[in-house]
Each structure stands twice: as C-alpha cells, then as structure tokens.
C-alpha cells in the first residue's frame, strides 16, 4: 500500500499522526534537559534510567503469586518515593527529579517519557545507533518490587539469572552493557563523582569493551569500595560486574566481539534496547514513532589501546578467538578526565 505520512503542526513529518505530540517534547528535552543536544551527564543518566525502570519485571515473582513489576512502565517516576531508595537505584533520584517536570508539562506517560528521553539522548552520542521508540505505555499502577535491579557486586551467575527472568539472553546482556561506553559513576566511589567507565564517555564506541579487558592496576580514587575492581587507567573506574562479565566463559567471546566492530555493536545494542524498552508491555497497543528519534552523528575516532598500553596488557578471556590487533594511542600516558556535572 501507499505509505502515508502525517504532517504535524510545525511542518515536520512522521509515519503516524499519533507521533506528532513528540516533536515539542523532543525540542524541549534537547534544549532544557540535554543542554542543547550534548552526550553528557543527563544523557548518561537518562539511559541508565531506561534500564532501571524496565528491569523491574519478574515473571518468576508472578509465578509465586506476587506482583512482578510492570517493566518499562514509568514506575520509577510514578512511584519515585518507593523505588528511588532501593539500594541498586543509588543516584537515580537526580535524573528522576530532572525528568519529572517534563512528564508533568507534556501529555505523555512516565513510561513513554523515560524510554523516549533515553532514545533521544543516545542520538546525541557519536557512533550510536538510532534507537527504536514505540509510544503508548499506560501509567504504572504499582511500584516495582525491590531487588530486581542488578548490583555491581553480584556474581555473573546471579546477573545472568536475573536477566533471564526478565527475558534476556547472555548475549543480550553483553549488548546492553554497551551502554557503559557512554557512562560514568557518581556513587561507586563517592570521592570521585563523574568517573567514566571508558576513556570516551561521550562517544558510543567499543573502547569500553577494549579497556575492560585490560589488566586492572589501580583504583582511581579510594580502595575498598563495594562493586569496584581495579582499572587500567587513572581517572577511569571499573565495576566488578563488568570485570567479571568480560572474563567469564559465558560472556567473554561476545564481549570481545564488539571490539573494533562498530556495526555489530550498533546492531546488537539497538536490538537489545528495542526489547528492553518494551519489557512488560503489550506491543500490539503501541505505535511506532521511531522516525521522530534524530539520526546520531557518525563515530568519531577509531578503536585503540590507550597511550602506554598494548596487547600485552590484555587479559585474554575468549578462548576461541584472539584479541583484535589495535594501534596504541600515541603520546604520553594520560588520565581520563571526569564527566562534568551540569
Ligand atoms: C549487570 C548489569 C548492570 C550493573 C551491575 C550496572 C551497574 C551500574 C553502576 C553501579 C553504575 C554507576 C552508578 C553511579 O554510581 O552513578 C552504572 C552506571 C550506568 N549504567 Fe549500568 N549497570 C548494569 C547494566 C546497565 C544497562 C543494561 C544499562 C542500559 C541499557 C546501563 C546503563 C548505565 C549508564 C548509562 C550509566 C551511567 C550513568 C551516569 O553516567 O550517570 N547499565 N551502572
Ligand atoms: Ca565510549
Ligand atoms: Mn552521573
């Protein structure tokens, strides 16, 4: 049949007239939440929020006759008073507080807003895929139960079991963790807020998968923090869970496969995020508004070992395939600067 496009009030077009409501929200959040279209702190936190909202979904609990959570239903905003104090949600109150006025101001459910803001935010990051966005999640009726969000001190077995319960395979877990390429931690080591997980926290590249495979040699701040492992670079922080997933036989080869393979990285993250964003939702009732999401800028830079490090620093964990050959960044060993708060 003919593809009929809707022309919205401001002249922009989208596949479905129901999606027109999103353009004013897009403009508002780009300007007033993401500081004019940056891939910075608010984008990183908005992406983390898509996960913490969606993963509140447990068919295993439902089977026991308990409420298993509504998944990507906006409960983290609607029932913020209950969910933000959960231990694994540490620090999430910042972005919940920042997003709540936008939900109130626009005619959109909290569940839709969280996933829309995540998809728009990711589009500001060079090298990212253009994420899918479906519109129409109903309001959450109940808060998520506690203990469904993975912790950085959980074992690989526990993490994979939690994701399996929510519907995700080990390969999908690894793909979702590409999110940590545009990420920093404020609360793992409270003395060094804004410390990134890779050397390029504003670029959606494979440096996270390279740098997590390097031998850990230092703590960027204090030692002894729960859920932290040694990192290979000053100014960079490593989660115990990321260190373990990079080295576990169930996940190591998939982890390594993203190194210097931008198209696989983009496709796998896009597919896994499409699934995450509708966790617990009836997709037959949602409208595809993906064409409202901006096209991300292309990748800037290419895969490399950070200055001073090379393949001898790799802790090879995938037995099937050798680590890809990469150049070392020229120049003296440097320390990664923090993600500025804004
Ligand atoms: C094994 C699963 C995971 C664990 C244990 C985990 C743990 C963490 C921790 C501890 C932080 C630091 C929070 C802080 O101190 O500020 C963090 C940050 C982040 N996480 Fe994860 N995470 C996991 C999976 C995911 C997934 C699936 C996504 C998204 C799809 C995600 C997106 C992010 C982002 C974007 C940040 C950075 C937030 C910021 O820069 O403010 N994480 N994660
Ligand atoms: Ca990066
Ligand atoms: Mn942060």
From TrEMBL:
- Family affiliation: Belongs to the peroxidase family. Ligninase subfamily.
The biased composition feature labelled Pro residues covers: 324-342
User: What's in the keyword line of the UniProt record?
Assistant: Calcium, Disulfide bond, Glycoprotein, Heme, Iron, Lignin degradation, Metal-binding, Oxidoreductase, Peroxidase, Signal
Residues of the Plant heme peroxidase family profile domain: 92-322
A Pfam family in this protein? Peroxidase_ext
Cofactor note text: Binds 2 calcium ions per subunit.
Ranges for the region named Disordered are 321-342
Its taxonomic placement starts with: Eukaryota, Fungi, Dikarya, Basidiomycota, Agaricomycotina
- Top enzyme category: oxidoreductase
Q: Would you tell me the protein name for this molecule?
A: Peroxidase
Name the needed cofactors. Ca(2+)
This enzyme's EC code(s): 1.11.1.-
**Coiled coil location:** none
């Amino acid at each position: 049949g003919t593809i009929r496009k809707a022309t919205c009030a401001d002249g922009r077009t989208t596949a479905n007239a129901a999606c027109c409501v999103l353009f004013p929200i897009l403009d508002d959040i780009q300007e007033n939440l993401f500081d004019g279209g940056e891939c910075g702190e608010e984008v990183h936190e908005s992406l983390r929020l898509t996960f913490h909202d969606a993963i509140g979904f447990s068919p295993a609990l439902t089977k026991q006759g308990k409420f298993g959570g509504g998944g990507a239903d906006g409960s983290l905003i609607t029932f913020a008073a209950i969910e933000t104090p959960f231990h694994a949600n540490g620090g999430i109150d910042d972005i919940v507080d920042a997003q709540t006025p936008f939900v109130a101001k626009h005619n959109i459910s909290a569940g839709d807003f969280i996933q829309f803001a995540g998809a728009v935010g990711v589009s500001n990051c060079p090298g990212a895929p253009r994420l899918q966005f479906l519109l129409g999640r109903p309001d959450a009726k109940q808060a998520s139960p506690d203990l469904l969000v993975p912790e950085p001190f959980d074992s690989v077995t526990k993490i994979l079991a939690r994701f399996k319960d929510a519907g995700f395979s080990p390969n999908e877990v690894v793909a979702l963790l590409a999110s940590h390429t545009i990420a920093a931690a404020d609360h793992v080591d409270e003395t060094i807020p804004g410390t990134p997980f890779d050397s390029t926290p504003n670029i959606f590249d494979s440096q996270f998968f390279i740098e997590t495979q390097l031998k850990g040699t230092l703590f960027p701040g204090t030692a002894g923090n729960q859920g932290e492992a040694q990192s290979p670079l000053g100014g960079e922080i490593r989660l115990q869970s990321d260190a373990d997933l990079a080295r576990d036989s169930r996940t190591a080869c998939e982890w390594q496969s993203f190194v210097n393979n931008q198209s696989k990285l983009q496709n796998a993250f896009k597919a896994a995020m499409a699934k995450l964003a509708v966790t617990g939702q009836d997709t037959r009732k949602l409208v595809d508004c993906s064409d409202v999401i901006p096209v991300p800028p292309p990748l800037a830079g290419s895969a490399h070992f950070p200055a001073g490090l090379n393949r001898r620093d790799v802790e090879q964990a995938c037995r099937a395939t050798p680590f890809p050959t990469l150049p070392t960044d020229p120049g003296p060993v440097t320390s990664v600067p923090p993600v500025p708060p804004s």
